Amino acid sequence: MLIWLVLIPLIAAALIGLCKAPARPTALLSASLTLALGIWALVSFDGCSSCWSRFEGMDLQLTLAPALSKVMLLLTILVTFATVLGTNPPQGGEASWYNSALLISAGATGAFLSDNIISFFAFHELALIPTFVMIGLYGRGDRRTTAWRATLYLGLASMVLLAALLMIGTQAGFTFSGLKDFMASGRELAHAELIGALLIAGFGTLISLFPFHSWAAPAYASAPAPVAMMHAGVLKKFGLYGLFMFQPLMETGFLPWTNILLVLLVCNVIWVGYVTINQKRLDLLLGNSSVMHMGYIFLAFAALVVSGSAEANPWALKGAALLMLAHGLTIALLFLLCGQIEKQTGTLEINSLGGLSTRLPRMAFVFGLAGMASIGLPGLANFPGEFMVFFSGFAGFSNGFGPVQIATILCLWGLVIGAVYMLRAYRNIFQGDLSKASAYATELQPSERAANCFLVIALAVFGFFPTLVLQFFS
User: Fold this and answer.
1) Furthest-apart CA pair in the chain: how many Å?
2) How far apart are CA 376 and CA 373, in angstroms?
3) Which of 57, 263, 382, 444 is spaced 20 to 30 A from 85 at the CA atom?
């Protein structure tokens, strides 16, 4: 069954690209089918008989056994559906527009469900290809330079990551389930510290860990709406997912690098936060905001490494999973709204906008909710995730402040920074000088409003009922 979550978007992409099938109806049907099938898989997965999927005699080794896989699958199917439903391609670009979303969705789904660490890596690389192509074809600004810069950063990161995966695989086997048997045997990895450094560098660059983050914000700002939504909302979580999946095996390998990681993640929150405040364009503000928020999830990872296990720090993995889901939904909604604002007004310069609430009141309401979710308003999904992440920094705290506690306190300042840039952006875009309101702005299309409402409802549901996600870890 799980194989169809990957095959359906791939078949739809082939039908659109090779058979000239109607792009939007085909993509929407694919997204709807994967949404329904994914929810059914999450509800009915039995933990054993559905673990493996065979296709043409080849074991793709797809599984939903890890709790984190369930959370990432939920994120992927929700964002994919909203992306296909709510974005509209330029004239003549329908096929590549929807194919990019479908291919990224298939690659991300395959990566998050893979038990084999090589297919885990390969599926991610599949999802990167449409990202570069779409930025180069339909991006904003200096799109080709941006696409090449992102290609260089992510290509080098993938090479570093592949080296680490091969070093792990040759010693402990090439499956995540096999790593448990290796750990149970009492053996230890050779060169664990080197492997830990390679994993942090490789995954960290893919996640945009400071100082390897400079590719991310320009790439998201330049990318067309479906790529920005799928990459920032879903694919960016690949690196975080990988770090948490390897953490039980790499306790001794990650621990020596914890203090350095704490410094870098604080820079993600504080340094990039102040950079975000100074942005003059909405797309760049959202891109830098996404980079900033990765620092919170890295904080949960560092707290877990220092604590030693999920049992010793029950807040870290659960909080990180909930925050990854919430951030993915929030940033996807914000980039969706960003594309709608550009379509309505022809600009994303914040100082050139103003008073849009008079012509786009529904969009103003939805953007306000998305912005409040981004800065951790109670009742929306980011709040319980951030709450648990900050508590994870003090798990087991008893004998004075250590590096993790200091980093946690410093990261709390990020909440203030986030409130400043998001509230100021909302005021300048939707309130402010009413004379700046575009005379051409009209209400959104029904499909755009439906996608906005879909993501808002998801943020509210997981905000009020975070146990829907946390039950995966029980």
Assistant:
1) 70
2) 5
3) 382
21 burial level (CB within 10 Å; 0-12, 13-18, 19+): middle
Distance from the first to the final alpha carbon of the chain: 23
| Share in percent of the chain as helix, strand, coil (round to 5) | 75, 0, 25
Cα(383)–Cα(375) distance, integer angstroms: 8
> If you write DSSP's letter for every residue of 100-142 in order, what string do you get?
HHHHHHHHHHHHHHBSBHHHHHHHHHHHHHHHHHHHHHH-SSS
- Residue 222 Cα to chain centre, angstroms: 17
User: Which amino acid is located at 180 in the chain?
Assistant: K
CB 421 within 8 A of CB 291: no
User: Please, which residues have CB within 8 angstroms of residue 337's CB and are 6 or more apart in sequence?
Assistant: 363, 366, 367, 370, 452
| Mean pLDDT, rounded, for 179-185 | 80
How far is it, in rounded angstroms, from Cα 465 to Cα 1?
A: 28
Q: How far is residue 145's CA from residue 327's CA, in Å, rounded to a whole number?
A: 27
Tokens of 79: 């964002």
Which two tokens mark 199? Answer: 């994993």
- Phi, psi at residue 210, to the nearest 5°? -55, 135
The confidence score (pLDDT) of residue 49 equals 41
* Mean pLDDT score of the chain: 86
The backbone region for 333, taken as left when phi is positive above 0, alpha when psi lies in -120 to 50, beta otherwise, is alpha
Q: What are phi and psi of 201, to 5 degrees?
A: -65, -45
- The phi and psi torsions of 62 (rounded to 5 degrees) equal -100, 135
Q: Which residue has the tokens 């296990």?
A: 309
- Is-contact 71 472, C-beta < 8 A? yes
Q: What is the mean pLDDT of residues 229-244?
A: 90
Token duo for residue 197:
């450094």
Residue 165: CA count within 13 A, CB half-sphere: 23
Contact 408, 416 (CB under 8 A): no
pTM for the whole thing? 0.92
| Amino acid in position 150 | A
pLDDT tens-digit map of 200-228: 999 999 998 988 888 888 888 888 888 88
Q: What is the mean pLDDT of residues 444-455?
A: 86
Helix (H) or strand (E) holding 54: strand 54-55
DSSP code string of 363-402:
HHHHHHHHHHHHTT-TTSTHHHHHHHHHHHTTTT--SS--
Contacts 24+ apart (CB under 8 A), 143-151: 143/222, 146/218, 146/219, 146/222, 147/219, 147/222, 149/214, 149/215, 149/218, 149/219, 150/215, 150/216, 150/218, 150/219
More confident residue, 21 or 81: 81
